Amino acid sequence: MDYDLICVGGGLGGAGIAGALAARGARVLVLERETRFRDRVRGEYLECWGVAEARALGLDGALAAAGAHASTFLETYIGPMRVTRRDFEDPADPRDPPRCFGHPTFQEAVLAHAAAAGAEVRRGAAVTEVVPGKPPAVRFRGESGASEARTARLVVGADGRDSKLRRLPGFVESRDANRLCLAGVLLDGYAGPDDTSATFFDFAAAEEALLFPQGKGRLRAYAAYRSDTGVRRLSGRERIPDFLRLFATTGVPADWLANVSPSGPLAAFEGADSSVAMPYRNGVALVGDAAATSDPVWGCGMSLTLRDVRVLRDALLATEDWEAAGRAYAEEHDRYYQRLHTLEDWMSTLFFTNTPEGDARRARVFAKALAEPDRLIDIVGRGPDQATDEATRQRVFAED
Q1: Domain range for residue 217?
Q2: Do residue 169 and residue 211 come from a single domain?
Q3: Which of 31, 130, 145, 363 is the residue whose CA sits 20 to 30 A from 386?
Q4: Are the C-beta atoms of 273 and 292 separated by less than 8 Å?
């Protein structure tokens, strides 16, 4: 075999596992189609549990190189009224705060980390075929256009939410019905609190504004809304005034955004989950969005990718039998992804159902949560490390 590991895709998933294995002496090849990573709007908020995964993978230096900006506080508003303020450094429940940063910058930092660990990185490489088997093989064209083929003990598919490797024989994809959309833009000139992320809800309209400061007046701003109101209504530079009007109607203080200007594209997209059950087959493992795309409204995508990388790394290092390791990774992935999927579904139901039934449910839940705040799902702090059994569901929805 030519390599121990070939990674199809050099973003967070591919570069993350490449660096983790190369640092242990594995022969690793990373094939990345893009010669320069571009702004894809989403994926710029790393939740507490994702920060923990990054640290477990030795990516502290990559976080620093990407200028990762700590969001010590998370505030939630209903209209202009603040209802919660989470301090992640509270001694009663301390968490390493979430980090905000530019996704392309972090991708470059993680890929540089992989190269420094000894991985061979090929940019501008277009993969044309992956053949599962023992060993699996990858055919690709380099920057010169010449076709090449290489084999490995394991191929990792980390080629994103539109993964071609999902279509390989044996992988079965499922996709949720469209429910929520997310639109986002990068803004400069932000005058709100620099150490605080914030969400503003307008329950009557089923809309949410999300603000993630990256430091020095830069803000990644998102708007979440129901798919049935039109995914593209907040897409394209000419729609930026409409985007900012949504922020005003959800309650964002006008002075926070009075002098902002866009420094990137405004794009909107459906947020429906899609996933592959058992993302390992015949020498090919899928990680990150290739394995499961989590609804970006809830900000778990990067954290989920880094967990995939850490779980796959641990499985591969635990045994020489990489076939067994691949199956062990896939089984564990399905367990935590299904928990996360359930938790996000509960949150979507709670926060984006703008019917009399939804209003009554929220009133019941919020009334009980005032006395028992641990009833609420802690998606930012704990992610999938929470129970999803029927007793928990009843407690979350105040049906107990």
Answers
A1: 180-270
A2: no
A3: 363
A4: yes
pTM exceeds 0.85 for this model: yes
199 & 171 share domain: no
Cα atoms in the 13 Å half-sphere on the side-chain side of 2: 13
Considering only CA atoms, give the Rg of the chain: 21
Tokens of 167: 């279509």
Name the burial class of residue 167, with classes exposed (0-12), middle (13-18) and buried (19+) by CB atoms within 10 angstroms of its CB. Answer: exposed
What type of residue is 210? Answer: L
In a domain, 94, yes or no: no
Has residue 71 been placed in a domain? no
Peptide bond into 135 cis (omega under 30): yes
Q: Which two tokens stand for residue 163?
A: 């993964």
Given 246, 270, 294, the domain boundary residue is 270
* Domain identity same for 36 and 107: yes
Number of domains, the chain: 3
pLDDT value for 7: 98
Shared domain for 314 and 185, answered yes or no, is no
Residue 89 in tokens: 């450094």
3-state secondary structure of 222: strand
Pairing mode, strands 267-270 and 196-202: unpaired
How many of the other CB atoms lie within 10 Å of CB of 33?
A: 17
Q: Which CATH number belongs to the domain containing residue 187 in this structure?
A: 3.30.70.2450
Q: What distance in Å separates the CA atoms of residue 177 and residue 15, rounded to the nearest whole number? A: 31
Which amino acid makes up residue 23? A
> Look-up: residue for tokens 């729609």?
239
In a domain, 10, yes or no: yes
Please report whether residue 73 resides in a domain.
Answer: no
* Cα–Cα distance list, 7 to 53, 145, 241, 287 (Å): 20, 19, 41, 10
Is residue 390 located within the same domain as residue 307?
A: no
The label of the residue with tokens 């830069």 reads 218
For the chain, where are the alpha helices, taking DSSP H only? 12-22, 48-56, 60-65, 103-117, 240-250, 301-318, 322-352, 356-371, 390-396
Q: Are 248 and 254 in contact (CB under 8 A)?
A: yes
Percentage of the residues of the chain whose pLDDT score is greater than 70: 100
**Closest-CA residue to 148 (of 127, 131, 117):** 127
Q: What is the mean pLDDT of residues 298-327?
A: 98
